[in-house]
Amino acid sequence: MQMIESVRFFTSYDANKYLGTLFRLRRKEQKISELELSKLLGISQQQVSRYENGLTNFNIIILFKFFYALNMNSKEVEGIFNELKGFYSDSSFGGL
Fold first, then answer.
1. If 56 and its partner were Cys, which of 33, 50, 66, 82 is the partner (CB 3.0–4.6 Å)?
2. What is the CATH number of the domain that holds 50?
3. How far apart, in whole angstroms, are the C-alpha atoms of residue 36 and residue 93?
Protein backbone atom coordinates (compact mmCIF):
# COMPACT_ATOMS: atom_id res chain seq x y z
CA MET A 1 0.00 0.00 0.00
CA GLN A 2 1.62 3.21 -1.17
CA MET A 3 0.17 5.42 1.56
CA ILE A 4 1.71 3.39 4.39
CA GLU A 5 5.16 3.70 2.82
CA SER A 6 4.80 7.48 2.60
CA VAL A 7 4.29 7.79 6.37
CA ARG A 8 6.69 5.07 7.51
CA PHE A 9 9.03 7.75 8.95
CA PHE A 10 6.65 7.99 11.91
CA THR A 11 7.69 4.54 13.14
CA SER A 12 9.22 6.02 16.29
CA TYR A 13 6.10 8.09 16.99
CA ASP A 14 2.85 6.88 18.42
CA ALA A 15 0.08 5.08 16.60
CA ASN A 16 -2.24 8.11 16.74
CA LYS A 17 0.26 10.22 14.80
CA TYR A 18 0.69 7.43 12.26
CA LEU A 19 -3.06 6.96 11.76
CA GLY A 20 -3.76 10.69 11.63
CA THR A 21 -1.12 11.27 8.99
CA LEU A 22 -2.31 8.30 6.98
CA PHE A 23 -5.94 9.47 7.06
CA ARG A 24 -5.02 13.08 6.21
CA LEU A 25 -3.03 11.91 3.17
CA ARG A 26 -5.89 9.68 2.07
CA ARG A 27 -8.44 12.49 2.53
CA LYS A 28 -6.35 14.88 0.45
CA GLU A 29 -5.76 12.20 -2.18
CA GLN A 30 -9.54 11.88 -2.51
CA LYS A 31 -9.97 15.67 -2.53
CA ILE A 32 -12.24 15.64 0.52
CA SER A 33 -12.18 18.65 2.85
CA GLU A 34 -12.01 18.29 6.62
CA LEU A 35 -15.55 19.65 6.77
CA GLU A 36 -16.84 17.07 4.28
CA LEU A 37 -15.10 14.27 6.18
CA SER A 38 -16.49 15.53 9.47
CA LYS A 39 -20.02 15.22 8.09
CA LEU A 40 -19.33 11.66 6.91
CA LEU A 41 -17.93 10.76 10.34
CA GLY A 42 -20.60 12.59 12.35
CA ILE A 43 -18.04 14.67 14.26
CA SER A 44 -16.88 18.30 14.12
CA GLN A 45 -14.27 19.59 11.70
CA GLN A 46 -12.14 20.50 14.71
CA GLN A 47 -12.26 16.90 15.92
CA VAL A 48 -11.18 15.65 12.47
CA SER A 49 -8.20 18.01 12.72
CA ARG A 50 -7.32 16.67 16.18
CA TYR A 51 -7.42 13.09 14.87
CA GLU A 52 -5.35 13.94 11.81
CA ASN A 53 -2.73 15.68 13.96
CA GLY A 54 -2.46 12.74 16.36
CA LEU A 55 -3.85 14.72 19.29
CA THR A 56 -6.77 12.38 20.01
CA ASN A 57 -6.81 8.64 20.65
CA PHE A 58 -8.65 6.56 18.08
CA ASN A 59 -11.21 4.11 19.38
CA ILE A 60 -12.29 1.13 17.31
CA ILE A 61 -15.58 2.74 16.25
CA ILE A 62 -14.05 5.97 14.91
CA LEU A 63 -11.23 3.98 13.32
CA PHE A 64 -13.69 1.96 11.24
CA LYS A 65 -15.69 5.10 10.43
CA PHE A 66 -12.50 6.59 8.94
CA PHE A 67 -11.88 3.40 6.95
CA TYR A 68 -15.41 3.50 5.57
CA ALA A 69 -15.56 7.27 4.91
CA LEU A 70 -12.22 7.17 3.09
CA ASN A 71 -13.23 4.14 1.00
CA MET A 72 -10.41 1.95 2.26
CA ASN A 73 -10.56 -1.65 1.07
CA SER A 74 -9.87 -4.73 3.19
CA LYS A 75 -6.28 -5.05 1.92
CA GLU A 76 -5.54 -1.48 2.97
CA VAL A 77 -7.13 -2.00 6.39
CA GLU A 78 -5.15 -5.22 6.86
CA GLY A 79 -1.95 -3.35 5.96
CA ILE A 80 -2.71 -0.67 8.52
CA PHE A 81 -3.31 -3.23 11.27
CA ASN A 82 -0.07 -4.99 10.36
CA GLU A 83 1.77 -1.67 10.69
CA LEU A 84 0.06 -0.96 14.02
CA LYS A 85 1.42 -4.23 15.40
CA GLY A 86 4.83 -2.59 15.34
CA PHE A 87 3.69 0.05 17.82
CA TYR A 88 2.50 -2.56 20.29
CA SER A 89 4.85 -5.51 19.84
CA ASP A 90 6.86 -5.08 23.02
CA SER A 91 6.52 -7.39 26.01
CA SER A 92 4.09 -5.07 27.84
CA PHE A 93 1.43 -6.03 25.29
CA GLY A 94 2.19 -9.73 25.25
CA GLY A 95 4.18 -9.56 22.00
CA LEU A 96 1.28 -9.12 19.58
1. 50
2. 1.10.260.40
3. 36
> Is residue 59 included in any domain, yes or no?
yes
56 neighbors 49 (Cβ within 8 angstroms):
no
Query: What distances in angstroms separate CA 35 from CA 27, 47, 61, 66, one per listed residue?
Result: 11, 10, 19, 14
Using a pLDDT cut of 90, give the percent of the chain over it.
64
The Cα 11–Cα 93 span in angstroms is 17
Quick: pLDDT tens for 30-39: 999 999 999 9
Q: Is 3 among the domain residues? A: no
On whether the pTM is more than 0.90, the answer is no
